[in-house]
Amino acid sequence: MNLNLNKRFGRYNTLLTGIVAGIILPVVIYFMIYFTSVRDIGSAIFSNLKVAANIIPILISHCILPNLLFFMVLTGINWMQAAKGILGSTVVLTIILFAVKLILQII
Asked: pLDDT 10s per residue in the chain (107 long)?
């Protein structure tokens, strides 16, 4: 069955596909989290920088975690090029997470 899937979907095993999926998946997860739980929190809480310094990195890290799970799935089906794209975008998003955390701690 794996051979049949590679014939049918093998053209999507590219670095660009992995990068695009690695960027889109966290955005989708962020909106899912926002519309289910964060939207209930008033906007006054987000105006406080100390609270924002603690909430924003948590949200970003929850968005990065599904990328790692998707990376494991792609390596399991031997789509190494797409997995490289996912891993690369995850590394970039993690660096952004640390930069945002550092900037909000300084402010």
From this structure: 455 667 778 888 899 999 999 999 988 887 887 777 655 555 555 555 555 666 777 777 777 888 889 999 999 888 999 999 999 998 998 888 888 778 877 76
Domain of 79 in residue numbering reads as 12-106
CA distances for 96 relative to 37, 43, 50, 101, angstroms: 23, 23, 19, 8
Q: CA 95 → CA 23, 44, 78, 79, 100, distances in Å?
A: 14, 28, 27, 25, 9
Q: How many C-beta atoms lie closer than 10 Å to residue 63's C-beta?
A: 20
The tally of domains found in the chain comes to 1
3-state secondary structure of 4: helix
